[in-house]
Structure formats: C-alpha cells, structure tokens
Amino acid sequence: PQLKAPMVDVYELTNLLRQLNFKVVSLLDLTESEMRNAVDEFLLLLHKGVYGLLYYAGHGYENYGNSFMVPVDAPNPYHSANCLCVQSVLKLMQEKETGLNVFLLDMCRKRNFHDDSTPNIVLRVTANIVFGYATCQDAEAFELSSTSFINGVFVKFLKKRLLDDEKITVVLDRVAEDMGQFDATKGKQALEIRSSLSERRALTDPVVSGDGHDLAHVHSRQWAKAHELPESMSLSFDCGVQIKLGFAAEFSNVLVIYTHIVKKPADMTFCQAHDLDVDPKEMNRETPEETGIYLLSSSLPQHCLYTRLSSLQKLREELVFTVCLQGTFESMGEEPPIHWTKSVNIRKPLIARLDLHRPVRRNSCLQTCLMPHSPCHSPGPEHHAHLYHQAPDYSRLLSQPHFLDVAELPLGAVGGCGMPFGDGTSPCGLSSSPGRFSIPIEASDDINEVQTVFINSLQLQPQ
Questions:
Q1: Does 271 participate in catalysis according to the annotation?
Q2: CA-to-CA distance for 239 and 25, rounded, in angstroms?
Q3: Could you tell me the pTM of the whole model?
Q4: Among 47, 59, 219, 389, the one annotated catalytic
C-alpha cells in the first residue's frame, strides 16, 4: 500500500505511447481472471504487422527462463497456477503474426521456491521479439521512495528515451547505460535486454495502411468501445440551480467525475452539490489531490467537487448514482438547507463495457497455460479480490545499510497496441485517501538532483 511508482509509471508511459499513435489499454489492480480476460481483449486488437507492446510493473518472479506476473488476488505463497506467464502471452501474440513484440517487465526476477513446475512453452522463430527486463536474472527491481512524485528506477530513465527515433534495442541499450550511471542502484539493479530482432524496428515507425486496413479499422473500434467517456451533462433543478457533470479517464479502469454549479438564483445564499452512493470521506472533495487524482489534477477544471472511481472492471451493472443539491434562500432565516436529488445513469464507462470481471471466457490465454508440462492449471473458483499484494518477509534485507524500508512494488501495465498493467493501491470502487496514497503532481527530470536527494535519504523497494 505504501508504494507509489507503478501508477505513476503506467500513466506516464501511456501518454508517451499515445504520442507514438499506439492504442493504449492501461489497467490497475487486476485479479487473475481479470488479467486473463484483459489479455484476451488485448489479443483481439492484434493482427498481422501490428506492433504489440506490454509493460508490467508489479510483483513477479522468474523460473527456468519464464517470467510470471502476479495478480492482486494471488495467495501467499503463490504458484504459477495463480499467475500469468509472459511467454504464454507471447505465444498467443505470435499467432497474430505481429510485426514486433516488445515486453518491458518492471518486476523482480528472483526464483520462486514455492513453485517447482517446469514450463515447456514452445515459441516460433519470428525474429521480432524484444525483452527489456528492469533487472538481471535472480535480482530485484526497485522503486525509489521519497516524499515527491516519483517513478520506478526503470521508467525514470526509459521515459527519457522512449520517443527517440531509433531501433528499439538501441533505445533500451541507452536506457541501460543511463541506469548504469545511477549511483543509487549501481550494483543492485541493471537493465537486461534479450532480442531476436533481425530488422530495424522502432516504436516511432509510422502507422501504414496495408491489406489489413479494414481489419485495423474494426480493431480500432473495438479499442474505442472500451475507452469512451460518458458525455458531459447538465442537470436542472426545480429551484433554478443548474449543475454540470464532467468526466475524465485517468486510466482505462479509473474514472473521474467532477461537479460544478453553473447557475443559481440570486437570492440563494448557500448552494452545494455532491454525489451520493459513495463514501463521503473518500469522494466529493474540493481539490483533485484530496480525492487521489494527482496525475490529472492540472488538466481538470477548477472550483469543482471531484470523485474518483477505480476498478471499473468490477462493475457488473450500469453505473447509477444520485446527485444531491443542498441550498438555502435569504427568506429562510435559520432554517436548515433544503435538499433536491436527481438520479444519473452513465451506463458502463470505459473498460467496464468489456465485463472483465466474468470468469475466463475465451480460453485462449488459459489454454496456453494448459499446454503439456505447463506450470498452469485451471484456476478453479475465482478468488475474492484483495486490494493489496501481500509482501513476503524482507527481514533479510533490512540489514543492508542505507537501504531500509523495503517493500514490494505493485502491479502496473501499458500496452500498440500497447498494454500497461498496473497494480496501484486504490481499493475497488473508491479512490485512496491522501493519507494512504500521496503522490505529488510534478516529476523532476533532473537526474543529478534526483541522485542527490536519494543518496541522502534513500529507500529502495523491490517488486
């Protein structure tokens, strides 16, 4: 719960990939079944020649050369049957005849001694695969924890290079060199690149229309289906007050609602509107930051009440909430405020339209994990969602000087189709309160300044 980087990393990589014309799906806090369904939806966006990119930040491990992403509901200790195998996802992407497959894995690669299975995933020789591991084999990945807005170590340097018009392996080589000069993690974390890329492929390559133009159009519509925001609306009350509701997307499964009074009678001395059906301690705050909206705060209109709804993938019915208006008039004296209410239905916003909460539907992702000698088996009954990963015992690390307060990094992802998975720490349906998830707005781009700050007071947090 105390970790901050994954949500920030996913948000910033999402914006960078969009600048490169990627269709990005960015998701936080997914259970196993939600992750499998999200992968299936991601695969629907792929076809011949498409560049597919998946970024993941969070709990993970590596056994026998296979990497495993850990969902938020994985038991402790977890096994491969509770996780998603990255190589299994790659095999499914290969079946789509993608032009480039890029995996950026921002997670630890330590062995999981609770998992003794030996995967046997046979991949095709496609000469278009690039892996960028945030750390070396059998090592940990870190985020730098401080009082300021912060990235994980990998993304801190990746975001400065991602838009470079260079072959993707050249970009990652330069990121590795930058990370190697960062004193805070030197000797503890080093980027590892694995590639079978035989052509010059860059994330900046222009999008071209080929034989699959019609198919690409269909896939773009499929992506748009899960990223349409509710239209802003005006609510008029009998007392003469008019309220405007606006909506913004922080991630594919996080919605921001802002409420603003645009008109009221001249003799109304007090007027306030807020959303019911949500926890008032978490919602209807007067600044975005109070409600946990740190990343969008600068682009939202001012002088509103703000509400943040996360984990939209769990929404089973249409989203209906009540707007309550309170007001007093000059003629009322000391009488209590009058209340008016209106019900609002915004159907299923953003990723909620895809019903990722259902049991695994298309068996593509699951079947790949069920190959002979595969580490996975049928997941059985769906686990109840836990809000946070359970951290293992880190007592063995606490003896390291200057690197205390060690905790695991939560799950995050971006993906061109680009897909970021993110394991932030906000609970289902409600935003985190400022005390539990405090992320400032701006990030420093000055590496030297960051080094000085972190060398003086550094907390390394492995994933």
A1: no
A2: 42
A3: 0.78
A4: 59
Judge whether 59 counts as a catalytic residue.
Answer: yes
> In the predicted model, is pLDDT for residue 434 greater than 90?
no
pLDDT score of 71 = 93
Predicted local confidence at residue 127, as pLDDT: 95
Q: What gap in Å lies between CA 2 and CA 457, rounded to an integer?
A: 17
Band of the pLDDT at 360, cuts 50, 70, 90?
confident
Are 114 and 138 within one domain? Answer: yes
**Among 83, 85, 108, 271, which one carries the catalytic annotation?**
108
CATH number, domain of 324, equals 2.60.40.3360
What is the chain's alpha carbon radius of gyration, rounded to the nearest angstrom?
Answer: 23
- Residue that is last in its domain, among 348, 380, 403: 348
Render pLDDT for 114-140 as a digit per residue (tens, 0 to 9).
888 877 888 999 999 999 999 888 888
Report in angstroms the alpha-carbon separations of 323 from 115, 230, 272, 290: 50, 16, 10, 20
Spell 374-395 as b/e; 16+ CB within 10 A means b: bbbeebeeebebbebbebeeee
Q: DSSP letter at 300?
A: S
Mean pLDDT of 230-247: 93
